[in-house]
Design goal:
The structure holds two protein chains of two kinds. By secondary structure, chain A is of the alpha/beta class. Chain A is 34% helix and 15% strand. Chain A has two domains: 48 residues, no CATH class; 316 residues, Alkaline Phosphatase, subunit A, CATH 3.40.720. Chain B has two domains: 226 residues, no CATH class; 158 residues, no CATH class. The chains are: A alpha/beta, B mainly alpha.
Chain lengths: 430, 452
């Protein structure tokens, strides 16, 4: 596999590579190589040779091949409750138009996918993915006794608990607990943000939150904190030792991730949105063979109680264009089979529009999977039934935990029971 | 000296430099008296907030206004926690009970009622506290008791009452939840945000709850719950974990539970018993807890005589450190302990004292609100006022190695792993105050400063 990285030769014959924005001459590169090897050894990473970026292994400027650590999951959360009915539009359903006299999307504007359903025109970028068989849409995803509060419903999606239970750990956190007990690196799951979501908090292990590796490096590796990491901590002081360990892990991870993020420069242009930036960072880390199985990103603002149309269209467009760039990037690196993207929102919205040109909190919604290895590309099931509603809201048909079960079992090779607390059959999507 | 420090950190939010100078050599009994005295003199009800006005603008605008009122209440509460003329003990009790009776509150008037319930009964009788909180419109709305009506009960409140507020799992059956829910039918709140018992909606039929049968009302269910030994034990264990140590000493917990039940659930008496006991000051209880974000902030504010003119920075810090008052993660409250710490919260905690005292910009991107299009980019100055003069006056010596020791005695509850002498390197010039300031900031950057 060809790594995208420029090699240059100067007029007087000096060779080097371009890393990020920097030109690095061969002799400098050799010394960086030494430093990196040393750093990697210090980080107890040395035994896992595949972690050493490909360009540091073997032939200096020969074919730059890499081996990757299996499957990668990327989760994109659409916070606020995306209106699923105006995302995947049931354009043949009269009830849809009846319930949304001014908010519906006209039949001739819908980007038709099949005889009943079509994309919101803002999702034009997704149509290409759909046509290539890279997208699965699962309709009517939810859970029993739905909660219409953002907080509570987000909590339920993050913890994967029943609506009647309050769990303190997230599903991906428990995945880390069960699969990553001996992991050396704290960045086995990364959230591209400066705060860590409950989804990534386990009992014993946590994901790593970072929106800008350079900034995190600066905040954790100043002179004083650097010295602190050398302090001789008494292991019996359990909580103090935990704080120091977290500090040291953060310092070494920030350094490592900042380096990793510079290793690869994409030839794809990402949109300048937050999500575009986040997915670009994720792509850079993936291409640099970072030992990370799960990436988590989110966009917010889908809580469209008033004047929904313009806002939802902007958000969907932003989402679709960022994801399109990301997929293109993955395809260019022949990684579409190795990366799976889940997109969800904590709930859908009320079928009937409200008096302010918006929609109120609802229940079931569609969720999306994007990847090259989908068993059922296209629609997994038929669209929502607008005749049989539960107090004006869609009835769920697919429990989101069955979707999680697929991801855990088929993609992350983890035990569903250990992670979700009990068995879920899964959907056979992957 | 370490006893005083321990007491004030667990019963309150540490000491200001002046308080430390005055009290560090007090006998512990005197300090306990002072804490309880101040609590008994504290205003136990805050000013009432007006009910939300819906005349102008729509619902969205009303909620936006109320959101700002809640931010002010949050800001005011953190300020009380850090103020010497307020009762630190009472504020700490309220913080504990807020985590216990976790409730998300969006309306100013409901926030004041809820806080008043905690303030009036937080050190009083647990039955009074439980009843008062259960009847706050904030809790009634949060746990859907408005939807709990005769013939179509909503079990949410009854379930949490048993599971999280009083007995804990394993001490009752699903059937008990259903029956209790029937007894609470009709507990409601009016449109203007006051408690109301709607007799029409109340199920007057006979209920069987924890083995007893009768036409119970909500109050009867609460009384039956308080007759259960499991209730005293559940509450004491939770108090022990918060005020003493996460690992529970079962023998002590059993003794305390028995006393608590015999005292008819006198919370003040229980707290006084804990603070007066010898074991409370045992070395393996000192400095073992990780401060919660709010405790960390309030303590820092108290030490640096710090205040915020606007709620914004207070909210920003709470959001990025993971504890937003009036907005717990769910009804189970904040799990606490190590769960406060992840790579991002620790990084911010270690950097925050310098950010605040130097008015540096904090570069952080946090998740926006559900309705915000786009996210908060926190490259903002956390505008604050502070005054380190009392800290300068506290320090008697003039050699850095001695100054750092005096400061560590005041600021830290555990001996730091990083030798204090190492902190004295590269201090600014000969200006004593600048040196004290610099040393204090370094001490507050140590992971040990997170402990209490």
């Amino acid at each position: 596999m060809q790594r995208i990285m420029s090699i240059f030769v100067t007029k007087n014959g000096r060779k080097g590579v371009i890393l990020g924005q920097e030109k690095i001459f061969k002799h400098t590169l050799n010394s960086i190589t030494m430093k990196r090897r040393k750093f990697l050894q210090q980080s107890a990473l040395a035994s896992t040779a595949w972690l050493v970026p490909a360009f540091l292994q073997g032939a200096e400027f020969g074919p730059l091949t890499t081996r990757r650590n299996g499957k990668i999951l990327v989760v994109i959360q659409c916070s606020g409750g995306n209106d699923g009915l105006n995302t995947i539009v049931p354009y043949q359903d009269d009830l849809y138009y009846k319930n949304r006299p001014s908010l519906s999307i006209a039949k001739n504007e819908v980007l038709k996918i099949n005889d009943n359903l079509g994309f919101n025109p803002a999702l034009q970028a997704m149509q290409g993915l759909y046509d290539q068989g890279l997208l699965s849409i699962i309709n009517n995803v939810g859970y029993p006794n739905p909660d219409r509060s953002h907080f509570r419903s987000t909590d339920i999606w993050h913890t994967a608990s029943d609506a009647s239970e309050y769990w303190k750990t997230g599903w991906l956190g428990r995945y880390l607990d069960s699969q990553c007990a001996g992991c050396q690196n704290p960045y086995h799951a990364i959230e591209v943000d400066d705060t860590l979501s409950l989804a990534l908090k386990g009992e014993k292990r946590r994901g790593f939150a970072m929106s800008d590796p350079e900034r995190l490096k600066k905040q954790t590796n100043n002179g004083f904190l650097q010295q602190l990491s050398q302090a001789p901590v008494q292991p019996q002081e359990e909580n103090v030792a935990y704080l120091y360990k977290t500090l040291i892990d953060t310092q070494s991870s920030a350094k490592y991730l900042a380096e990793q993020a510079k290793t690869y420069r994409s030839s794809v242009t990402y949109p300048a949105s937050d999500l575009g930036r986040d997915l670009k960072l994720i792509s850079q880390l993936i291409m640099a063979d970072t030992d990370t199985k799960v990436y988590y990103a989110s966009i917010t603002g889908f809580d469209t109680h008033a004047n929904q149309k313009g806002r939802q269209d902007r958000l969907l467009k932003m989402y679709a264009e960022a994801v399109q760039a990301f997929v293109k990037d993955l395809q260019q690196n022949k990684l579409m089979d190795e990366v799976l993207i889940l997109t969800f929102s904590e709930f859908g919205r009320r079928v009937k529009q409200n008096g302010s040109g918006g929609t109120d909190h609802g229940t079931a919604n569609n969720a999306w999977l994007i990847g090259g290895k989908l068993q059922k590309p296209g629609f997994f099931n038929s669209g929502p039934n607008l005749q049989n509603l539960d107090e004006g809201d869609l009835r769920y048909e697919i429990d989101f935990r069955d979707l999680y079960a697929d991801l855990l079992q088929k993609w992350l090779e983890a035990s569903v029971k250990d992670t979700l607390g009990r068995d879920f059959k899964g959907l056979g999507m992957i | 000296m370490e006893k005083i420090r321990h007491l004030y950190w667990r019963a309150g939010f540490g000491l200001s430099p002046d308080e430390w100078r005055e009290r560090r050599n007090w006998p512990i009994e005197k300090a306990i008296e002072e804490l309880f005295d101040q609590a008994s003199r504290a205003k136990n009800s805050l000013l009432n907030a007006a009910p939300p006005a819906r005349d102008e603008g729509g619902l969205a605008q009303m909620l936006e206004k109320e959101r700002a009122v809640m931010f002010q209440q949050n800001h005011a509460w953190v300020s009380r926690m850090s103020a010497s003329n307020e009762s630190a003990l009472l504020e700490q009790m309220c913080l504990f009970w807020h985590g216990h009776f976790a409730c998300r509150i969006l309306i100013g008037k409901l926030g004041v009622q809820y806080m008043n319930a905690l303030r009036q009964h937080g050190l009083g009788n647990f039955r009074d506290l439980l009843l008062a909180v259960s009847q706050t419109p904030a809790m009634i709305r949060y746990l859907n008791n408005q939807q709990n009506r005769k013939g179509r009960p909503n079990e949410n409140f009854a379930r949490e009452l048993l599971e999280l507020f009083t007995m804990g799992r394993g001490n009752y059956q699903e059937k008990d939840i259903k029956e209790a829910a029937r007894a609470f039918t009709g507990w409601n709140s009016t449109f203007l945000g006051d408690f109301e018992f709607r007799e029409m909606w109340h199920d007057e039929g006979s209920k069987t709850f924890l083995g007893k049968t009768g036409p119970f009302k909500g109050e009867d269910i609460i009384d039956i719950i308080l007759q259960q030994p499991a209730t005293a034990s559940f509450l004491v264990r939770k108090i022990y974990r918060y005020f003493v140590k996460e690992q529970i000493d079962e023998v002590l917990a059993a003794q305390l539970s028995q006393g608590f039940r015999q005292s008819n659930y006198d919370i003040g008496k229980l707290m006084r018993q804990i603070f007066s006991s010898v074991w409370f000051y045992a070395p393996n209880n000192l400095g073992k807890r990780i401060k919660s974000p709010v405790q960390f902030m309030a303590g820092l504010m108290r030490s640096a005589k710090m205040g915020f003119l606007q709620p914004g920075p207070v909210l920003f810090m709470q959001r990025s450190l993971g504890q937003i008052l009036f907005n717990p993660p769910n009804v189970a409250g904040w799990p606490g302990g190590k769960t406060w710490i992840d790579n991002s919260t620790l990084t911010l905690r270690l950097n925050l004292p310098a950010f605040l005292l130097n008015s540096e910009e904090v570069g952080l991107r946090t998740k926006g609100e559900f309705e915000d299009e786009g996210r908060e980019m926190g490259a903002q100055k956390l505008a604050n006022t502070h005054d380190l003069t009392p800290l300068y006056q506290l320090i008697k010596s003039s050699k850095p190695v001695e100054m750092v020791q005096e400061l560590a005695d005041y600021l830290l509850l555990v001996k730091p792993a990083f030798g204090l002498e190492n902190l004295c390197k590269d201090l600014p010039g000969a200006d004593r105050n600048a040196q004290i300031r610099s040393l204090a900031m370094r001490l507050m950057t140590l992971p040990e400063y997170q402990m209490c």
